[in-house]
Amino acid sequence: MTLFLRRAATTIIGLPLVVLFVYLGGKLFLTLCCAVALVGLREFYVAFSKKDRLIHVIGYLATIGYFGAISEFGAGNWLLIALTFFVITVQTCLVVFFRTLPISECITTVYGFLYVPFMFSFVVLVREHAFGHYYVWLILTASFGCDTFAYLTGSLFGKNKLKNTPSPSKSFEGLVGGIIGATLIGLVYGVVINHFFGEKDAAAHIVLIATVISFFGAIFSIIGDLAASAVKRHCEIKDFGNLFPGHGGVMDRMDSIVTVAPIVYMAMTVMFWFVGLEI
Amino acid sequence: MTLFLRRAATTIIGLPLVVLFVYLGGKLFLTLCCAVALVGLREFYVAFSKKDRLIHVIGYLATIGYFGAISEFGAGNWLLIALTFFVITVQTCLVVFFRTLPISECITTVYGFLYVPFMFSFVVLVREHAFGHYYVWLILTASFGCDTFAYLTGSLFGKNKLKNTPSPSKSFEGLVGGIIGATLIGLVYGVVINHFFGEKDAAAHIVLIATVISFFGAIFSIIGDLAASAVKRHCEIKDFGNLFPGHGGVMDRMDSIVTVAPIVYMAMTVMFWFVGLEI
C-alpha cells in the first residue's frame, strides 16, 4: 500500500509538471528534455557497465551536442552530422585507448546514445514541428494511456500470460486492452481538437491522424516496455534507478516514451506526406 | 612478389571502375554504393557473430531502406526516420525472440549498421550535394592518398613504431607523411579546379576548402584504418574477407572511406556555412 501511495504521490506531483513543460515548449522544454535524456542515458550505461566509465562522457557530450543541433537547426542535416561525429569520436577513443577499452564498451556507448537521447529527442522534434503542439500530447496518451489500460484490463481479464517474453507476468488481454484504450483516447482527442479548431491547419484530418498515430503508438509503447524489460533482465537489475519514488528511474518511466516518440514523429511525417501537408 | 602483383592487378582494374562510377553519379552510383555497403556490412556481422544470423537481415533491409531514402529524399528528415525505424525494429526482434536472441547481437546489429552503411552513405550524400562533383574526389584522395604516402614515408623513414596501438608495425613518421601527402594532393586539386573553373560556384574558396578537407580527411583516414584494425584484433581475424585479390574484403579496402566520407561531408557543410554558401 505504501508503494501504491508513493507511486500515486509521484504521479500527482509529476504529471502536472510534465504537462506544463510540454505546453510551454521552446528552449526551456528542450533543455529539460536534454537533462532527462542525460539522466536516462547514465542509467542505461551504468546498467550495462556496472560503473561509470570515461567513454560514457562521449555519450553525454554527444547528447548535449545533439540537442544543441536540434535547438539551433531543427530536424535534418545537422542531426546526421552530430550523430556521425559521435560515432567517429567513439572509434577514435577505441584507437587511442586501444589496450584499456573493451570494444563492447564502445558499441554499448553508441547503442545507448541511440536508445535513449536519440529516440527521446523525437519528443522535442514533434513538439517543435509546425503542428506539433496538437500532436505531442499523443506521445503521452499513447504510452501512459496504453500502460494504464493494459494494467486495468490485465488485472480484470488477464488469463493468457505472456510466457517466454521479458515480462511473463503480463497478459495478452492486457496488451489488447492497452492498445484499444490508447486508440480510443486518440480518437476522442482528435474529435475534441477538431470540434474546437475545426478543419484548418493541422486540425485537418486530425481525427483520422490522431487515431492512427495512437494505434501505432500504443503497439510500440508495449514493445518499448518489453524491450526495456529484456535489457533489465540481461543486466540483472530490477529497476534502472530510483529517482522517482515508486516508479524507479528515468528509464523505467521513459521506456515506452523512447519508442513511442519516434513512431509518432514517423506517423505524422508519413501521414502528412500522404494528405499533402507540408512537413 | 605474387601478393604485390595481385594487389597491383586489382588496383589497375578496380581504380578506373571506381573513378568511372563516381564520375557518373546518379542512381547507378547510389545502387553500387548500396551493394558495396551490404557486402561490407555482412563482413562486419560475420566477423562479430562468426556466422550469419537472422537478425542481420534487419541490418541489410535497413541498408536498402536507408539508401532508398537518400535516393528519394536526399539528406535530412527521412534518413533520421529510416534510422529510427531500424533501431526500433531491432528492439522488436529482441522482444519477439527474447529467449533465443542475445542482446549483444542486437547491439552489434545496430552498431554495424552505423559503422558500415550509415557512414558509407556519406559518399553518396557528398556526390549528390550541389557542389559534390567537385568535392567527392577528396574522399578518395584523402583516404587512398594518405594510405599510400603513409606507406612510402613509413618504409623510408619509419623509426618510431606505434606501440600499444592496433597497428604496432606502423610508424609515427608514416602517419605524418600520410597527412602531409594527402593535404598537398588536396591543395594541388584545389588549385587545378580553381584554374579551370575560376572563382564561381563551389569553385569559390575551393583551394582553401579542399586543403582543409584533405587535412582532416587524412587524419580521420588514419583513425578509420586503426579502428578497423582494433575491430579485427577483437574478432581475431586478419582480413574482413577476400573479395579483392591481395586487398582482402570490402571492409579492408573501405576502412578509411567510412570515416573519411562523413568528415568530408561535415567539413563541406561547416565550411560552406562559414563562407555563406547555401548548403
Describe this structure in words.
- The structure is a homodimer of 279-residue chains.
- The first copy, chain A, is mainly α.
- Helices cover 78% and strands 0% of the residues of chain A.
- Chain A has helices spanning 2-24, 26-49, 56-73, 77-96, 103-128, 132-157, 172-197, 206-235, 250-254, 257-275.
- The longest helix of chain A is centred in the C-terminal third of the chain and has 30 residues, at 206-235.
- The interface between A and B is large, with 47 and 47 residues.
Strand content of chain A: under 5%
Order of helices and strands of chain A: HHHHHHHHHH
**Biggest interface, CB < 8 A:** A-B, 47 and 47 residues
The radius of gyration over CA of chain A amounts to 19 Å
Helix content of chain A: over 70%
Number of helices, where a helix is a run of at least 4 consecutive DSSP H or I residues of chain A: 10
Tell me which oligomeric state these chains represent. homodimer
Distance between the termini of chain A: 48 Å
Largest β sheet strand count, sense and barrel closure of chain A: none
- Secondary structural class of chain A: mainly alpha
Low-pLDDT regions of chain A: none
Number of strands of chain A: 0
Mean pLDDT of chain A: 89
Question: What form of chain A results from the Cα inertia axes?
Answer: globular
List the keywords.
homodimer, 279 residues, mainly alpha
Structure in a nutshell:
2 copies of one chain form a homodimer. Chain A is mainly alpha-helical and 279 residues long. In chain A, 78% of the residues lie in helices and 0% in strands.
